[in-house]
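# nightly structure sweep
# worker-07 picked up a monomer target from the shared queue
# config: single-sequence mode, recycle default, output format = structure tokens
# input follows
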Amino acid sequence: MDKSSKDRIILSAAKYIYENQEQKGILGGSLSFEVIEEVLDNMMTNEYYYDDESGAFIEKPHLRRLLLLDGFEIRDKKLVRRIDSINSYIEKESLLVQLLNKYNLKTAKGHYDLAISAFTRGEWASCNAQIRSYVESFYGFER
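# output follows
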């Protein structure tokens, strides 16, 4: 198989995974997560691709940083979420929303909702601006 055929197959697979992000994998989790986990597992078992001592990917030093930005890290040669307890986060978030609603803090809740929306889209500057506005709304510093 020549390089261009291999590249087309990889591109087709990546496109399928991107367009079907909710698709379940063979282990029952997210297909995209399972594929990434498998690729990383293969890389980490090869000393030419992964340095055990530093925890760095040799030919792709930026990969570790990109995983961190997406909320993942490598622990004991396994891909894991950085947030240890998603349920705890969800409980705390829903409590915050309940309190904002209970005390009728509509402006603060609006900024909070916009911050969460920007965060999920990866728009960090927008998220930061909305978090600032959210905090300022408690002190009456809105402009």
